[in-house]
Amino acid sequence: MASIYTFASGKGGTGKTTVSANVATALAGMGRRVLIIDTDLGMANVGLFFSLNINKTLHDVLAGDVDVREAIYEGPYGVKILPAGYTIKGYQKANIKMLEKVLDQLNREFDFIIMDTPSGINPNIIIPLKLSHYVIVVMNPEITSITDSLKTATIARGYDVPISGVIVNRIENGLSQNLRNKINESSGVDIIGEIPADVAIQKSLSLQKPVVCNYPTSAASFSLKRIAAQMAGIE
Ligand code: ADP
Ligand code: MG
């Protein structure tokens, strides 16, 4: 049975897609069977992130139009990807309530199922949250991002979904002890990853390849692989 993780944050642009897609790829590189699902149905980015040429998508699966296996693609190290589509029409026909069935169908085939989620508080985030075994909160080291992310954490707790920890992303010049304490105190969970602001991430995005493959020795890749190693229980 797969361990199902949701990567979530209150605010947009904290790095959910970047972090979840790279952690999924890194876990696959460690020999784990990994599926990443793009549950950001409105602003789907995962297919672009992996430079996929997509035809059938999660939108079609959630509309009951295609079998889930027709919408799964392969990325680096054999990571499997279930992308959402890019059209408004697809978004409108997709029923997020069908996600539970999708997870039931795929659960036995993977060690990890990682869900990238939208920002905000709406059914498109709440349903993946409820269906997860663990939530990882991705935030930036700014007070607004911290505050918004903690709302997501509170919602997860409300559904009894444990929060594995917080990842602080886009850190410039280190994370002050003061901010680290603030995050720990207000979230009640540990910081499990600290990822620096790194131009290698933007360069990789323009090449549409995960940074852990493209710039494996960059500072961001080091942090991302470390998070994956912790999840895989090898660190
Ligand atoms: P979200 O999915 O939370 O909306 P994204 O993963 O799409 O956020 O990231 C938003 C933007 O921030 C992207 O342009 C991405 O390349 C950039 N980004 C994310 N993390 C970092 C980082 N550690 N260093 C530099 N740029 C980053
Ligand atoms: Mg995103």
Account of the protein in words:
- It comes from Methanohalophilus halophilus.
- InterPro entries: AAA_dom (IPR025669), MinD_archaea (IPR010224), MinD_FleN (IPR025501), P-loop_NTPase (IPR027417), ParA/MinD_ATPase (IPR050625).
- The structure is a single chain.
- Helix 1 packs across helix 11 (219-232).
- The protein is an alpha/beta fold and 235 residues long.
- 42% of the residues lie in helices and 18% in strands.
- It has an eight-stranded mixed β-sheet with strand order 3-4-2-5-1-6-7-8, sandwiched between helices.
- It has helices at 16-29, 46-49, 58-62, 88-93, 99-106, 123-130, 143-158, 177-187, 199-207, 211-214, 219-232; strands spanning 3-8, 34-38, 73-74, 80-82, 112-116, 134-139, 163-171, 191-196.
- The two termini are 22 Å apart.
- It has one domain (3-232): 3-Layer(aba) Sandwich (Rossmann fold), CATH 3.40.50.
- The mean pLDDT is 95.
- Bound molecules: adenosine-5'-diphosphate and magnesium ion.
- Residues 9, 12-18, 45, 169-170, 195, 197-198, 201-202, 205, 220 line the site of adenosine-5'-diphosphate.
Secondary structure elements and pairings:
Elements (H helix, E strand, L loop, with lengths): L2 E6 L7 H14 L4 E5 L7 H4 L8 H5 L10 E2 L5 E3 L5 H6 L5 H8 L5 E5 L6 H8 L3 E6 L3 H16 L4 E9 L5 H11 L3 E6 L2 H9 L3 H4 L4 H14 L3
Parallel strand pairs: 1-5, 1-6, 2-4, 2-5, 6-7, 7-8
Antiparallel strand pairs: 3-4
Question: Which strands sit side by side, in order, in the main sheet?
Answer: 3-4-2-5-1-6-7-8
CATH C-level name: Alpha Beta
Per CATH, what is the topology? Rossmann fold
Total strands: the figure is 8
SSE ordering: EHEHHEEHHEHEHEHEHHH
Structural class: alpha/beta
Looking at this structure, what is the CATH superfamily? P-loop containing nucleotide triphosphate hydrolases
What is the CATH architecture assignment? 3-Layer(aba) Sandwich
Mean pLDDT level: 95
* First-to-last CA distance: 22 Å
